[in-house]
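Proteins fold reproducibly. Consider a sample protein:
=====
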Amino acid sequence: MRFLFQIVIFLFIAILAGCSSFIPIVNDTSKTPIRVSIIPKPMEQRVSAKIYIIPKKNVICFNPEASKAVPWLQKMLQASNVSSEIVVGNNCGNWNLIADASLEKVLGDEGYILEINSKGIILKSATQAGLFYGIQSLRQLFPAGIENNLVEGTFNLPQLYIKDIPKYSWRGSMIDVARSFFGMDYLKRHIDRMALYKLNRLHLHLTDDQGWRIELKSRPALTEVGSKGSVVNGNSGYLSQEEYKELQKYAAARNIIIIPEIDLPGHIYSALLAYPELSCEDYSNLKPQVVLPPELYTGYRVGWSKLCLKKPEVYKFVDDVIKEIAEITDGPWIHIGGDEIKDPLYKTFVVKADSIVRNYGKTTIGWEEVTKAPVSNSLISQRWNGKTKSIVDVKVIQSICTSFYFDHANVTGQEHTNNWCKKDGVSLEDVYQFSANDVNVIGLEAPVWTELVLDEEMLDNRLWPRTIAVAESAWSQSDKNFTEFKDRLKTHQQRLRTMGINYFPSPELNWTKNEDLDLNQNVFKEFLP
């Protein structure tokens, strides 16, 4: 009987050993677990006091469905000055990538399971996106020097088990390139940074009174004339269609979808300069499109320009624009703006514009005012003040200005910032503590309006580290604890420095001023797997 009991125990241990990749690690009670500061905080995380030392020679084992994730892992190991070879198979290396569609029932289409044990690393997901996000969590476990090839010698990874699933499908950042233009180099760097923190939507505000920033072949004067302006001391310019397509490809490799916004029917002066027949107002400084230079608008006032909604040619213009934007946009959404406009035909226009977007196979997004009109239930409302009484039941993106308008000050009194929505600014805690108690909410997005943001250093300063708080709130399903979040975020200062980010030196984090940045050293820049 005793012999039989021993056999049972032996078999039980053997089974456990054979299934070790699926067993959550139990903390070693003899030592303190190693500190892990992953952002966004994983849904489930167990960390032991044991370590895994990355060897100089590594084998990446993957099944065919996981192939797109392999180059990202290779790049990370290369940046750590260790070698790697790749092998197609299952659990045949010290790095194992597994994409298994059956895991979607457990992990959804963006979740992942990451285990680091004594034998190596196992990363599993139902999708390539989930594997990519798991690699970003791994990346944060590596020294900050990985971001620009400054890792020397061997280093350790904590043995741990993570199961992680995002709270929201929409985790966004918006840059207004219309008031002051920011081009390909900056936008690519921003995409790189978004990816590290698992943000997945980049909303580009492409048109406004000051400038039109996207080339359209059907309406060439929009950029020939309308792109010439900016706010005072800002930058002019535009994205060619080839650049726009390239940017989308770059973003897609990082699981980020670009959403173009063509602001209609207001915020439209740059288009009226190019095509003055679209206006019914007597703008004394409007010139025919053949006259250069045009009378550009360089001010900050909003809500004063609009299309002439009683003219049939306006709807031909809108159709031309939406059709071409739809043709060159890979993602499923087109944003039509729709804010800060008063016109008796406003509701009629919004319904028609929504119909045009859907006619070209895309889903409409609009600022919350559009839900005053009987738009389709497929439309997505982007709330920025929460004051609109909607007459339709639609999905919602939360961008409430008191928590997410990053043109506002990081701290009270910061120079070159807006304060019309919140006089004392939008602090890191304001961003983090936002709570969306609405079943229609699909996610969060933080806009930066650029009336007072004139260069890349200023834009970095408005975005970071507050964008990290957006990422945490949009992804993490853990209970909110600002003190604990700050403790994790403090450890990311050197990583942001190494990535060349001109972050705001937040007093909440006791961060120092960022100096001597090299913006060209990020090893993931320009990288397409």
